[in-house]
Specification:
alpha+beta; binds guanosine-5'-triphosphate; elongated; Diguanylate_Cyclase; 2 domains; Alpha-Beta Plaits; disordered C terminus; diguanylate cyclase
Length: about 350
């Protein structure tokens, strides 16, 4: 099933909602202006609406949401200024919601800068006010409004960033989680069509991890998992990503490497783990299966090949790196009649 474009895109959702609210708010006024013979005002209303809808459609059809947000903000704020000029104090009522919405549409500093500029233009132009007191009251209320909006936007932003980090990371080890892994592998396979650079993938599985739990307890096992992740993270580049695939199994995505470089990265990780845990009893080691993305891979076949190589590393004695051969697959043992074939896991226990 195709993913909805709004599912993971908060900014796109905000822009779409803004467009919907703009239609609901502006269309009745445009109709009223036409019916009361004020065609110029109706044209202004429809012009503002057309520009906002253009920005919304651009974002919806895959355009850059940051640019779309800026375009929608500039259109609505300019529209608000024109309406204030045409209708005086009554037209100024629109500026409150417009300046508030800007904090949802674009980054805080842009919203703040545009709000200050819009308030300054209205005050300097001055035709909306019958007295200095009115101008002061507008300046004070508008300033308080944008200050609250800025504080609220800042809190919302930091909470959203924390929630996104929580949703993408494994809480025990800090590695990215399986959900993030699937998205990253899908992206790497799709990106192949745009950038023709090689990309490596490795599965890292701790050896005999059950023994650590059995001898030292589950909490000691947890500490080993966290230390393992810290060791791997210290050996990989900024653009590489480590994911917890499940239990004591991890996936490492290494963009921009060929098979030789991938083997060196994996070997470096393997020997670092061996060294760092050499004084433990039992010693902790890792088996690694790695492979380069092939032109006709989907993410599952790519991962499956790395898994087959990791399985071979286990069979060949553990604590080693195996690079998948072309078309390598995890062997299956003959199943009893009537049952689906199962991987030869029994041989590893
Ligand atoms: N402490 C701890 N243990 C975990 C966690 N997740 C999975 N495990 C344990 O990891 C162990 C995995 O055992 P196996 O699948 O038999 O693998 P293994 O002992 O590493 O053996 P090989 O992979 O064949 O080398 C099980 O005992 C799980 O309980 C976790 O989050 N914390």
């Amino acid at each position: 099933m195709a993913a909805s474009p709004t599912r993971d895109n908060f900014q796109l959702v905000v822009i779409l909602l803004f467009g919907l609210i703009a239609v609901l708010a502006i269309v009745p006024f445009a109709v009223y202006r036409v019916m009361s013979g004020d065609l110029l005002a109706a044209v202004v209303d429809m012009g503002i609406l057309a520009c906002i809808i253009g920005g919304v459609l651009y974002a919806w059809r895959g355009g850059n949401v940051a640019y779309a947000g800026l375009a929608v903000m500039l259109t609505s704020t300019t529209g608000g200024l024109v309406v204030a000029k045409m209708f005086g104090l009554a037209g100024l009522f629109w500026m409150g919601p417009i300046l508030l919405a800007n904090f949802l549409l674009v980054q805080r500093r842009w919203a703040l800068a545009i709000a200050v500029a819009a308030i300054a233009i209205i005050l300097i132009e001055g035709s909306a006010f019958a007295s200095a007191l009115e101008a002061w009251m507008f300046a004070a209320t508008a300033s308080v409004t944008i200050l609250f909006a800025a504080v609220f936007a800042s809190r919302t932003e930091s909470q959203r960033i924390r929630l996104e980090a929580l949703a993408a990371h494994d809480t025990l080890t800090g590695a990215k989680n399986r959900l993030a892994m699937e998205a990253a592998l899908r992206g790497a396979v799709a990106g192949r069509r745009e950038v023709d650079e090689p990309c490596g993938l490795a599965i890292l599985d701790l050896d005999h991890f059950k023994r650590i739990n059995d001898r030292h307890g589950h909490e000691a096992g947890d500490r080993v998992l966290s230390r393992f992740v810290a060791i791997v993270m210290s050996r990989i580049r900024r653009g590489d990503s480590l994911f917890r695939y499940g239990g004591e199994e991890f996936v490492l995505l290494v963009p921009g490497v060929d098979a030789g470089a991938l083997q060196r990265v994996a070997e470096n990780v393997r020997s670092a783990v061996e060294q760092e845990f050499s004084s433990e009893h039992p010693p902790v080691t890792v088996s690694i299966g790695a492979t380069i993305r092939e032109p006709d891979d989907d993410w599952q076949s790519w991962l499956g090949r790395a898994d087959a190589a990791m399985y071979r590393a286990k069979r060949e004695g553990r604590n080693r790196v195996c690079i998948a051969g072309p078309g390598e697959q995890r062997p299956v043992k003959a199943a009893p009649s009537g049952k689906a074939p199962a991987p030869e896991d029994a041989a590893l226990s």
